[in-house]
Amino acid sequence: MPFRARHLLGIETLAPYEIVTLLDLSDSYVDLNRSRAKHSDKLAGLTQINMFFENSTRTQASFEIAGKRLGADVMNMSMAASSIKKGETLIDTALTLNAMHPDLLVVRHPHSGAVDLLAQKVNCAVLNAGDGRHEHPTQALLDALTIRRAKGKLHRLNIAICGDIAHSRVARSNILLLGKMENRIRLIGPRTLMPSQVAELGVEVYEDMREGLNGVDVVMMLRLQRERMDGGFIPSEREYYHRYGLDPEKLAYAKPDAIVMHPGPMNRGVEIDGTLADDINRSVIQDQVEMGVAVRMAAMDLLAQNRATATPGVMV
Questions:
Q1: Catalytic (active site) residue 59
Q2: Which of 119, 147, 230, 237, by CA, is between 20 and 30 Å from 104?
Q3: What is the pLDDT along the chain (316 residues), one digit of tens a residue?
Q4: Is the Cβ–Cβ distance between 48 and 72 less than 8 Å?
Q5: Is 34 a catalytic residue?
Q6: Which residue in the list 7, 42, 134, 136 is annotated as catalytic?
Q7: Active-site residue, selected from the candidate residues 7, 42, 69, 108
Q8: Which of 283, 274, 263 is nearest to 168 (CA)?
């Protein structure tokens, strides 16, 4: 099945068959990453630039490893010391990078829409590594791959996304992707942490954790994103954990074979019990980290293929 995208800016523009195409290729990269010889030459001769305007551990490391395993020349730009700190605009930075003729540009930015703006100004393929509260497409794709491998399918499952929905680009991308794949999605959390347009998302909303978890196949926990909060959204972390933190007692309301997910970084004892997070019989959190490298390899491989077949001189 084809993959038409020239950039990976979000899940919203992807068709279900493109999601399946990317996940199928990701499966092959899982096998490669588990072998002794972890390298391919799919991106040999290509240049990948990682621009992270927000701090990241998992995502930046994952993209770097993915590019190097595919044979790309990978450069990580230190945005804390970049010309943007000296007053240069994002567009001027994009034009400067464009003059260096990169092939793949991976961008994380605190403002929604910034990555899309960059994509309009450069000739290379752009991958969104998270922009503001907008989207985090590769996180949703790696979550989807984790679910598909654990449950044997990625459709008609009952999936609960719990916690700070309002500030989470991970939640938005997952709602879009899992909805496209015909899953039943439940959002669980306090009213103060639900997005204002939640009624338009095609999901079920629960304030009671136990009611929301009843009979679900997948439990996806989210951290409290205090860096995006500008007020008192919860009474206290202790009260939040009591009502919305995942522990064995609350998880018992889900199906016996329900899996537990978390995109990281985790706040143990705030949104999830530490012992439960480490339970190899229920938690697939480390699998998510592993799937992240494979998904990002697949995404860059497909975008590089599309770039290679693009009309010369045409901005894609």
A1: yes
A2: 147
A3: 789 999 999 999 999 999 999 999 999 999 999 999 999 999 999 999 999 988 888 999 999 999 999 999 999 987 765 555 556 788 888 888 899 999 999 999 989 999 999 999 999 999 999 999 899 999 999 999 999 999 999 999 999 999 999 989 999 999 999 999 999 999 999 998 999 888 889 999 999 999 999 999 999 999 886 554 445 566 688 888 999 999 999 999 999 999 999 998 888 999 999 999 999 999 999 999 999 999 999 999 999 999 888 644 443 3
A4: yes
A5: no
A6: 136
A7: 108
A8: 263
Verify whether residue 108 is a known catalytic residue. yes
Count of alpha carbons within 13 angstroms of residue 127, beta-carbon side? 32
DSSP letter string, the chain: -----SSB--STT--HHHHHHHHHHHHHHHHHHTSS-----TTTT-EEEEEESS--SHHHHHHHHHHHHTT-EEEEE-GGGSGGGGT--HHHHHHHHHTT--SEEEEEESSTTHHHHHHTT-SSEEEEEEETTTB-HHHHHHHHHHHHHHHS-SSS-EEEEES--TT-HHHHHHHHHHHHTT-EEEEES-GGGS-TTGGGSS-EEESSHHHHHTT-SEEEE----GGG--S--SS-HHHHHHHH-B-HHHHTTS-TT-EEE--S---BTTTB-HHHHT-TTTB-HHHHHHHHHHHHHHHHHHHHHHHHTSPTT---
Look up 58 and say whether it is catalytic.
Answer: yes
Give the count of beta carbons closer than 10 Å to the beta carbon of residue 44: 11
Nearest to 76 by CA among 87, 90, 88, 62: 62
d(CA 313, CA 302): 20
